[in-house]
Amino acid sequence: MTSTLLDQPTATAAPKAATPGPGTARPRLAVLDGLRLVAALAVLSWHWMGVQHWPQIWHGKTGRLMPVGSAIGAYGWLGVELFFLISGFVICMTCWGRSVGEFVTSRVTRLFPAFWVAVLLTSAVLYFAPQRWGVDPHKPTLVRVLTNLTMVPSPVGQSNIDQVYWTLWIELCFYVLFGVLAAFGLTYRRVLAFCGIWGFASIIAIGSNFPLLSNLVQADYSWYFIAGIAFFLIHKYGPNLLLFGMVGFCWLMSLDRIQSMVQTNSGGAERPLSWRVAAVVITLSFALVGAIALGAMNGVRWRWLTVAGTLTYPLYLVHQEIGFEIINRLSPHLPPYATVAVSLGVMLVTAWLLHRLVERPLGPLLKRGMARSFAQVRANGHLGSGS
């Protein structure tokens, strides 16, 4: 939607020359795609090497089998925070100037085709696997599988088919909040106000016992989305003190909220994790996205980064439960690091097949169907109930 004059930045706050043109937007997105793959591989390293809860998968503790890999993987869960930081940036970038219908369509077509197939594929593997392990030792039931296809099993009392799907609920909460804003039109002023209100609501949620507010604003993770949005505004309109202040505040709050996660994940790693190490990783994540926003990586135009971006989401969806089953079969016959390498290769091929055979054909088909649906809504929106 077109912004009004009052919603545009002033000449001193964000000069027109700071707005990137088409030629500079693409390399920045390509670098973000590369970072997304890094985040996915970090999470994979946490599940495959950092967590010590599944010795039956590796036929031994990963800390003993892969000391270096286990030490690095013990902090791989921080890839989720990088995911959310990038998500705030990318959603703003891809949805700026679009209607709420286009926003909803872009999210549905991006998330659901690969997710539906991943749920069915993972359910089949878990159902037919002769050896059961993990948090839920029971075979998936039909009700559980069908509920998982909605992408919101946890809020209605069902467990995720694959435990990594918990992050999708947090993403959906962000999309709902951002979708409300998109319904009014995305402008500089409105997006800034949205970030401020969301941050204030997150602070209230932390200090209150209000489950509805806590579930909606996701105060442990909202700071990454807000910072990502602020970084996009820097990317689009140029830097100013207000935006840097917003990013700095989000950085400080993220360092506070990460304390509890360090303690929680120390149990999974079966070793004391360092808040200082986690803080350095978080700081580097902010610095990298900030460098992209400021144009420091405009010259990076490696074509493989775009491929990396297409593999990230499908890889994330299938890497844990299916990956564990592959590791369980390979680990008695291969050295640990070779097992990781071969399993990763299989997962990357699976991710590419999901992209090539599912996302590419089904995404456009779903997009056309939703476009017709929203066109019908617009065409009949003016009709009264008696028409």
Structure description:
Helix 5 runs parallel beside helix 13, helix 6 packs antiparallel against helix 8 (about 165-185) and helix 11 (about 220-235) packs antiparallel against helix 12. The protein has one domain. It has helices at about 20-50, 55-60, 60-65, 65-75, 80-95, 100-130, 140-150, 165-185, 190-205, 210-215, 220-235, 240-270, 275-295, 305-320, 320-330, 335-380. The protein starts with about 20 loop residues before the first helix and ends in a 7-residue tail after the last helix. The protein has 16 helices and no strands. Residues about 1-30 and about 385 have low confidence and may be disordered. The chain has about 375 residues and is mainly α. About 70% of the residues lie in helices and about 0% in strands.
Short description:
With 387 residues, this protein is mainly alpha-helical. It has helices at 22-50, 55-58, 62-65, 67-73, 79-95, 100-128, 142-148, 166-184, 188-207, 211-217, 222-237, 241-269, 275-293, 304-318, 321-330, 336-380.
Poorly predicted ranges (pLDDT <50, ≥5 residues)? 1-28, 383-387
Largest sheet: none
Structural class: mainly alpha
Residues in helices, as a percent range: over 70%
Strands, count: 0
